[in-house]
Amino acid sequence: MPKAIVFDLDGVVYLGARGIPGVAAEIARLQKKMPVLFLTNNATKSRLEYVRHLAAYGISAKTDDVMTASYGCASYVLENYGRGNRVLVVGEQGLREELENEAGAALVERRAEIVACGLDRQITYAKLEAALRCLNAGAAFILANNDPTLPREFGASIGSGAIAASLIFASGRKPDVIVGKPSAYLIKKLLQIHKIKSRDAVFVGDRLEIDIRMANKAGMKSVLVLTGVAKRKDVLCAPKSDRPWKIIRSAADIGKALGI
Ligand SMILES: [Mg+2]
Fold this sequence. Notes:
By secondary structure, the protein is an alpha/beta fold. The chain contains 10 helices and 15 strands. It has helices spanning 23-31, 47-55, 69-81, 93-103, 125-136, 160-171, 185-193, 208-218, 232-237, 254-258; strands spanning 4-8, 14-15, 18-19, 36-40, 66-68, 86-90, 106-107, 114-117, 140-143, 149-152, 155-158, 177-178, 201-205, 221-225, 246-248. Strand 14 (221-225), helix 9 and strand 15 (246-248) form a beta-alpha-beta unit. Helix 3 (69-81) packs parallel to helix 4 (93-103).
């Protein structure tokens, strides 16, 4: 039996504004038996905002139970560059808040030591230009996640990776780090906070090349749900690195699949 279960959010716990039926109840049941944790590539919200967001779907979680790419960027900055750096953010409130609170960053528009980039739905030419100047002057380049698109009700929208692509193209530089999945940085951090070994944890996700690849790379048991992006037939064409340990219809069935 695993010692912890980690859920991806979009496509696993909810789809846009709609909770996936039975998942909140299953999470409540599992929470009586083991730590239930949540991990998302999203960097627009802070961990605290996610705690409130999950509550709206009937799920109770503590701040430490949630890992986001916003918090991940802030921990990466703190670990690698220390506190109090001048950081230019191309991103939203959650990323700004985590950098200020966790890494003591001074958020600036020019002469930054670090450029942190995530999804920014208020992106402007001026903001990209300011970031480019700092990158050209040698600032560190941190990317929250490389997701090309953002799934929306009407189809795909511009993701964090697509925004970063303009900076990468213009500066001729690659990010120094991408903290989001499929990198194992976020999951290692989350498991470390809870003192859980990766081999004792299960990851439940909906994307093969992001969630399942990360879980396999981290040495966790990977479970694919069919309520999000990947379909059963996609598994057949996937490389070995992206194949799940188990496939289940929905996260509502996770306990049954694991015999918990
Ligand atoms: Mg997902």
